[in-house]
Structure formats: structure tokens, C-alpha cells
Amino acid sequence: MNLPIPPRWLRRILIAPLVMVTAFWILITLPLLAIAAAAVSPFLPGSWRALRLLAFGLVYLVMELAGLLAALALWVGSGFGAKLHSPRFIDLHYELLGWALRFLVTAAERLFSLEIVEEPGRDIRTIAGRPNPLVLLSRHAGPGDSFLLAHEIMSVAQRRPRIVLKDTLQLDPFIDVMLNRLPNRFISPTPGEADHPVRAISELASTMGPRDALLIFPEGGNFTEARRIRAIERLRSRGNVEGARRAQALTYVLPPRPAGALAALDACPTADAVFVAHTGLDDLDSVSDLWHAIPEDNTLTVSWRGVTRDAIPNGPDRAGWLQDAWADIDTWVGAHRADKSD
To answer: What is the CA angle 108-112-114, rounded to 5?
Structure first.
């Protein structure tokens, strides 16, 4: 059963102070925690696993505290919220979000030997050079891929990301404060008509300008084999024989759900489309997988394939166009997984 998250006012007076108390407790006990982590690390696989996890936890806590204090300063500086949604303060919030993502990704790169590599000839810089809004249609696989991709969109492409997220992410105070101040939408697992994901995507896309990029995951969730089988069975139960056949031919991705992607393209008639394929964190489906992968070397390889607006089909052909693109992503993932295993 999915329990509703607390209302915003309750999150502000309970969860944010809890983060402060936790930070204080960790800081005063940090020497003991470091000694304990160093003591158990030799008995764990990998190199200084517990110590690296402790270090990343401390980095995240520093980001959380610094980000919340900066967000409070922005609120005060905006006239206690009066000008919080003005263009100047929107830009300042995006700068703060970009700093937070760079801070975390840099820490992950150094502590966990994580490397992000763009496929030559399909890098985001080339695609972002056109003065059009972007609708990015990405594969969903691996922990934190939305945040890693958002970092690439901001730091490399110099675009301002928009995204539809699960409402439970609002339990993180910094995410709650920052992303609710920017054009993003949080959706519950059982949304009502007012916050239906397709409607939310359409509303976010309709107000995009040339500096914006809407990140969508048409699969609807991280890839797992069990979800792939359920998706095929769902298509069959609905009588979509052709869709089930095409989904069964996929190995590494779930069949895309076209409604949200097509709604975004309809809502923003000037937007280019970008198909995002990535691999490297695919096998980290559970907490156990994630634990065993840390701090081993991991490389996230990303391919960005742009489609200009005039090359996007109109009418009923677009659903097939999206399925064809997803079949290409599936082939790309298979080829790059094979390269890494050689």
C-alpha cells in the first residue's frame, strides 16, 4: 500500500529540522564513525568500501545543508518569497541546482571511480547548439540515472532541465524545496486526474523556451526483466498483438509508453527530440547489487541522438517512430554491453 507523503507545511517543520539534527550528530561523532568504517573496510570486498560510503554520505549531507541555507537566502533575498518566481530568481535557483549536481557527481566520480563518457559523434553539446527547446526521451535503468542525466543537461549542455518525478522524492528537503520552486512536477503512484503524468508533462512542455529541456522516461520505470514480462503481458491483455510482438523483441529496455512523449511534442511545437541511450549501471537493480558494485569502477556511457523538429513525423506514424527509436536503443545497449564484457 502506498501511503501519502506528509503535506508541505509538515515536511518543512519536521523533516528539514531532522536533517539539521542528523548533521549535528554526524559531525560530533565523525571521528568515531571514521574509525569504525576504517576498521570494517578490510573485511569488505573492494577498497575501503565503508569509508567511501561514509565519505559520500558526509558529502551529501554537506550539499543538503548548504543547499537549504542557500535556498533560504534566496527566499529572503526575493522579498520573503514575493519575487521568488521572477526570471532573475529562477536563474539563481538553476545555478544553485547546477552546483548541487556538480558537487555530488564530482564526489561520486572520485569516491566510487564513476566515469561518464559520451559516445563520439552523439554528444549533447552538438544537439544543444540549436536554439530550440528539447524533449529528451531517455532509457530508464540504474540508480540515479535521472540525476546523472540532469547533471549532463545542466553542466555540459547548459540547458535548464524539467522533469516529472515520484512524489516520495519530496521527503528529501533540498529536492523538495528546490524542485517545487522550479518548473517540475511530482506525481503520486496513484495520481488523480488533476496530476495525471501525461497532463503534467504537457503542462511542463507548453511553457518551454529555447534554454529548456524536458527529460522524460517513456518506459515509466527502471528496466528489470520482470517488468519487461509484465509489460508484454499487459499489451497482450489489451489486444495489442503487434505491440506485444515488438516488445518481446526487446532485450534491454521496456516498451515505451507513447502518451507522455507525444503529449510533450504536441505541447511544444518548436521542440527538437533527443533520444538518450545509456549503459553502465544497468545491473544495479537492488540495494544488494548497488552494495556489491561499490566502489568498483563504473563507466556510464551515454549516447544522445537528436531529431530536428522537421524530421519528427506527424499523425499516427509517431507511435511507430517512437517504437523504432526504442528498438535502436535496445540494439545500442546490447552492442555496448558486449563491448564492455570483451
So the answer is: 70
**Cell numbers given for 98:** 547546477
3-state secondary structure of 183: coil
Cell 541511450 appears where? 277
Parallel, antiparallel, or unpaired: how do β-strands 114-118 and 134-138 relate?
unpaired
Q: How far apart are CA 65 and CA 22, in angstroms?
A: 11
Residue whose cell numbers read 574509525: 35
Do residues 188 and 2 touch, judged by C-beta distance below 8 A?
yes
The residue type of 73 is: A
Q: Which three cell numbers stand for residue 258?
A: 507513447
Give the side-chain half-sphere CA count within 13 A for 44: 20
Q: How far apart are CA 43 and CA 40, in angstroms?
A: 6
pLDDT per position as a tens digit, 323-332: 999 999 999 9
Spatial CA neighbour of 164 closest among 142, 141, 135, 124: 135
Residue with cell 535557483: 93
Task: Supply the pLDDT for residue 58.
Answer: 93
Q: What is the pLDDT of residues 5-35, one digit of tens each?
A: 889 989 988 888 888 888 889 889 999 999 9
Which residues, in sequence order, are CB contacts of 208 under 8 Å at separation 6+? 133, 162, 214, 268, 271
